[in-house]
Each structure stands twice: as structure tokens, then as C-alpha cells.
Design a protein that fits this description.
seven-stranded mixed sheet; Rossmann fold; globular; four-stranded mixed sheet; binds 5-S-methyl-1-O-phosphono-5-thio-D-ribulose; 2 domains; 11 helices; 356 residues; alpha/beta; 14 strands; Four Helix Bundle (Hemerythrin (Met), subunit A)
Length: 356
């Protein structure tokens, strides 16, 4: 994979498959996978071969286009029925990241608006929309990087959680966008990377992509954040987001919220990086965000040669938690830096964006 680029997700040359870098194999193996059926796509999301909120949106766009190319019917009603069924099925794979349903809705809207023009025209528009979702993401990540850099200083120590870098989005990533954009401009940060139990997205993915890009990177276990902060190593915490409620409460990888509590204790700024599309104005607070529960084996056995817990032990394995709006210093979107009070600022932003 070429870093700061986005070839880890793309259409095949014949446009019949979506090609992804299988993130479940990193960092040991860089293997690409071609997907063409809805079951393969659903499984790739479920097994975190493709993951990260914005990347799920990009993947959904390309997947719906590829699936539509394979429907062996010329009947627009039948075509539409299958398109909708596949969209609903993909959407059921993971509940927390809003970008998945957001992109699927965009693709369905394109379908509905163009089906009267015939199937070839619909396919052309679906491809355009999928590519647009991808290109918009690259531009949005860059803008987040520009806004992020206004809040950070050269040589700052930044603590990250999970992976919201190039692998989770495109090119610059969300959380890591100021880091990569900084590199281009000669601004360097010291990155402290939480390993992020149980699936180790920090150790396997963030440490991997940062080190490859030549960033000063130090890995730490999740329970070392307090120590790192107490030693004055951390100037800011930077995280991504899977869904942001209309009051600013933010769902992100499990463990994010405890970092926000610690950051408050040490008076360290806590910054959330997410595109505008991650803000879900349909929900009032974090209480309304559905948190994905995953298999107990991810905690007890998955990454170990031997079991790390007694057989039959009860396991709690929520994939995300909600950081309270009051613990967030600023939310950095592609539309600008948003500081509290988030509810009022989001309402203003949505009115402006929707010409209300
Ligand atoms: O379970 P994952 O690996 O998909 O979780 C990803 C995260 O929580 C990221 O921090 C979030 O999606 C933002 S990605 C830019």
C-alpha cells in the first residue's frame, strides 16, 4: 500500500469487483481481496476486513454499484427490488457508524432519481456517485487536516485511539489528517498510539501506517494513558468518530470515553475529527446510538496462541462507547472547527448547509 494515497479501496479495472486491502491481516500481511457478491461484502464488513466509518461509506458506494452491474434483469421494478434488498442487508452488518447508512441512502436516492432513464443510465450515475463519495472523502479529510493544524503546534505529543487514519478513510484519514498534512508542511508531531483492545486497531493499523509514513510513533497499552498524561507527554488527544448526536455526544471505539475523562482531569484538549456526514441530527443524544456488541472470543482468544481467560467466563465486548459532549474541546469537521455549545452550532451549520 502506498501511504497518503487511497489505493486500499478501489474498483477493479473491469468494474465487476470492489478491491480492498484486507485490514484483518495487517500488519503481518498486505493482501488485497476482490469482492463481487453481497455476502462477500457483508462478511468483509462484519470481519473488519474493511472498517473505519468513512471507509465503510466509500465501500458501500462501490459495493452497490458493483452489485447493480451484476443484476441479470432488465425489469426496472425487479432491479429496484434487488437494489433495495442488498442495501438493507449491507446496512444491517454494523449498526454504529452512520457513514454506512448515509452512503447507502445516497446510492438509493441516485437509483430512484434515475431509474426512469433506464438501467444503463442508472448504472452510469451509480458509478459517478460512488466515485464522488470517495473523492469527496479525500477532500474532506484534507480540510479537516487544515483546520486541525490551527489547533496544534509543532512537536506536540498527540495521543490516538483506534485507527482513524488513511486506512479508515482515504489518503489523510480523519484523526490523523493534521499529522499527514503536517508532514507535508514540515510540522512534526510525536504520536502516542493506544493499542486499542480487543482488536488492536491502534497497534496493528495506526502504528503501522504512521511508522510507514515516517512519523515519530510510540505504542502504549490502553491502560497507560494516565501515566503518559501524568508525565507530560501528551499535549492533545485526537480521535475519530462513528456517529455524533445532535448534542455533540460522540460514539467512537470502546475506550475513547475514558480518555476524555482523563484528558479533562489533566486539562488536556480532547479533539474529535469527523466529516460533517458523521453528525446525525436525527438523534438527540448518545443514549440513542446503537452500540455494536461483538463476539466474546475477540477478548478471550482471538489474538493469542493460548486462551487468555478461563473457559466459559462471561465477557462484555461492546465495540464502541459514547464520549459526552461536555468532555470534548472541539469537533473538527470539513466545515470547520466546532466548539461548544455543539447543539446550537450544529443547528446553525445544518440550516446553512441545507439552505433553511
Ligand atoms: O471497529 P472499527 O475499527 O471500524 O472502529 C473504527 C473507529 O472507531 C474509528 O475511530 C472511527 O470509525 C473513525 S474512522 C475515521
Amino acid at each position: 500500500m502506498k501511504y497518503l494515497d487511497s489505493d486500499h479501496i478501489r474498483l477493479s479495472d473491469d468494474k465487476n469487483t470492489v478491491i480492498i486491502l484486507d485490514q484483518s491481516l495487517l500488519p503481518s500481511r498486505e493482501e488485497y481481496k476482490s469482492l463481487s457478491t453481497v455476502n462477500e461484502m457483508y462478511d468483509a464488513i462484519k470481519r473488519l476486513e474493511v472498517r473505519g466509518a468513512p471507509l465503510l461509506g466509500i465501500f458501500a458506494g462501490y459495493s452497490m454499484y458493483v452489485l447493480a452491474r451484476h443484476y441479470d434483469t432488465k425489469d426496472p421494478i425487479e432491479f429496484g427490488k434487488r437494489f433495495h434488498e442488498d442495501s438493507v442487508y449491507l446496512n444491517s452488518s454494523r449498526p454504529t457508524a452512520v457513514n454506512l447508512s448515509w452512503a447507502l441512502n445516497r446510492m438509493e436516492k441516485v437509483f430512484i432519481e434515475n431509474i426512469a432513464r433506464g438501467i444503463p443510465a442508472v448504472l452510469e450515475m451509480l458509478e459517478k456517485e460512488a466515485v464522488m463519495i470517495h473523492e469527496e472523502d479525500i477532500a474532506m479529510c484534507r480540510r479537516m487536516g487544515e483546520y486541525g493544524l490551527t489547533l496544534l503546534s509543532d512537536e506536540d505529543g498527540l495521543l490516538t485511539h483506534c485507527n482513524a487514519g488513511a486506512l479508515a478513510a482515504s489518503r489523510y484519514g480523519t484523526q490523523l489528517s493534521p499529522v499527514y498534512l503536517g508532514l507535508e508542511q514540515g510540522i512534526n508531531f510525536r504520536l502516542y498510539v493506544d493499542e486499542t483492545r480487543p482488536l488492536l486497531q491502534g497497534a496493528r493499523l495506526t502504528a503501522y501506517e504512521l511508522a510507514k509514513a515516517g512519523v515519530d510513533t510510540t505504542l502504549l497499552c490502553d491502560n497507560m494513558a494516565n501515566y503518559a498524561m501524568s508525565q507530560g507527554l501528551i499535549d492533545a488527544v485526537i480521535v475519530g468518530a462513528d456517529r455524533i448526536a445532535s448534542n455533540g455526544d460522540t460514539a467512537n471505539k470502546i475506550g475513547t470515553s475514558q480518555l476524555s475523562v482523563l484528558a479533562k482531569e489533566y486539562n488536556i484538549p480532547f479533539y474529535v475529527f469527523a466529516p460533517y456526514s458523521t453528525i446525525d441530527m436525527n438523534i438527540g443524544s448518545g443514549d440513542d446510538i446503537v452500540i455494536e456488541e461483538r463476539e466474546p472470543e475477540e477478548v478471550t482468544t482471538l489474538w493469542y496462541k493460548n486462551r487468555m481467560a478461563p473457559l466459559g467466563i462471561n465477557v462484555l465486548n461492546p465495540a464502541f462507547d459514547v464520549t459526552k459532549a461536555e468532555n470534548i474541546t472541539a469537533i473538527i469537521t470539513d466545515k470547520g472547527v466546532i466548539k461548544p455549545p455543539f447543539a446550537e452550532k450544529f443547528t446553525e451549520l445544518f440550516k446553512k448547509e441545507n439552505n433553511v
